[in-house]
Amino acid sequence: MTLPLRFVKMSGGGNDFLLFEADGRGLSAEDRRGVSLLCRRGLSVGADGALFLSAGESGRIRLDYFNADGGLASFCANGTRCAARYAVTRRLVSGREPVLETGWAAIAARVNGETVSLALPPLPGPGDAISLAPVGLPGTATPMHVGVPHLVVVSEEDVDTVDVARLGPPLRRHPACPDGANVNFVRVLSPNRIAVRTYERGVEAETLACGSGIVAAAAVAARAGLVDPPVVCETRSGVSFTVDFRDEAGGLSDVTLTGDAREVFTAELTREAFQN
Q1: Which of 50, 65, 84, 104 allows an S-S link to 109, with CB 3.0 to 4.6 Å?
Q2: Which residues span the domain enclosing 210?
Q3: Percentage of the chain surpassing pLDDT 90?
Q4: Which residue from 208, 273, 153, 217 is spatially nearest to 14, judged by alpha carbons?
Q5: At 234, which CATH number?
């Protein structure tokens, strides 16, 4: 397969994506390299990742997600929300409640204009806190899997002052996370509100928002007794999300993530977008 030239740029709370109508299962190693070249900011289009939409089973939409480095990832919550809005507005599905087949699970969505909600599968809940000493840092972090692995660090300081660029890389490669992890720095603002900043693996930088990271952050804060759902989550972009769930002994159920999904522009790539 060769990457399609036509694409749509979409953004979910500042998490931005290139969206192609194509089957992501057909991407070659050269295509994945092309994705990484397109996701460069300044030299090409720029994005946190790429979404590939194709026909799924029984009227569903198949979604394959690739990180900015060209690596295939099992799930991206904000990418899934953007894909759901695109599928509805382009009438790839009937109605406003598409089901998207991701590498993690089949995810049901509800589209109401620019607002898109995801209903996530039951989650196992936060794990036991792990020491940050192995990466030379004080304190602990809490692991949680929301389609992809996350580490959550609850901070007592304003998250705006956290040096994410310095702390993110060693935490992202913590030895307790053999596949790497997204790292979320969280500050509790009130019993129903938190602020979150995320360093994402595959992007290898801070992103303006991370949907699955927001869910992990809200769940960890709730399990610690710091907040009660629904939790409003403020992100680096200035866009807020709402996470709701039931926290039970066996884990989390009825998990939803709600936020905006914007279609920014439609364009056609040139060969120069792929230049080194």
Answers
A1: 84
A2: 130-260
A3: 94
A4: 208
A5: 3.10.310.10
Q: Up-side HSE of residue 221: CA atoms within 13 Å toward CB?
A: 34
Residue 123 lies in a domain: no
Q: Which two tokens stand for residue 75?
A: 């799930």
Number of structural domains the chain divides into: 2
Residues 29 and 58 in one domain: yes
pLDDT surpasses 90 at 189: yes
Task: Examine the domain organization and report whether 23 and 70 are in the same domain.
Answer: yes
**pLDDT for 271:** 94
Tell me the C-alpha distance between 29 and 207, whole Å: 25
Q: Which amino acid is at 177?
A: C
Catalytic residue IDs: 76, 210
